[in-house]
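Weekly modeling sync, notes
Attendees: S.R. (lead), two postdocs, one rotation student

Agenda item 3: backlog of single-chain predictions. S.R. asked that every request posted to the team notebook include the full sequence so nobody has to chase files. The rotation student volunteered to paste the first one in as an example of the format we agreed on. Action items at the bottom.

Example entry:
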Amino acid sequence: MTLEPAGTLRRTVAAALAGTGLAVALALGPAAGTANADVLDDLAQEFTTAAGAGQVSTLLNQSLKLRTAGVKPTGAELAAVQDALKYRPNQTPMIAALKDMVAGQTHRLEQAQAAADQGGYTIGINQYDPNSPGGVTVGPGGINIGGGSWTIGDGRSPGQAVGPPR
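Predicted structure, as returned to the notebook:
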């Protein structure tokens, strides 16, 4: 039987203790935090979604539709709804919190739509020159390509002699 170096033994014991600590923490500790959106889901299960179910149900449905459209409520809005739950059976704080959440979500949706509706930006290319509308034009100065910036030829017809007259 051979003796292992002291460093190897220490590493083995440290790894075993770390693994045991992790197993105990997972067994005793709470599960991973639940999503804040669960407040809306819990309220959706509690309140009926039928027509005429009340203001809370209507606002809740609007918020859930906006959430499915990709406009999620902020943490502060969800915290306000969570906080309003302690004032039950009084629904006034819940209605106020849900109104604020729907208003915030609607505002963010409008901002996103306005940003998407903006046209693109052109930087340094495809700039319109009102003095020379562009395209290919032929005139006494030669062939004009792309808004007058380039001229091909010297303006004479093909076959003309170049140089001093004879």
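Discussion: group reviewed the output briefly. Residues 30-35 have pLDDT under 50 and may be disordered.
Action items: rotation student to repeat for the remaining queue; S.R. to check formatting next week.
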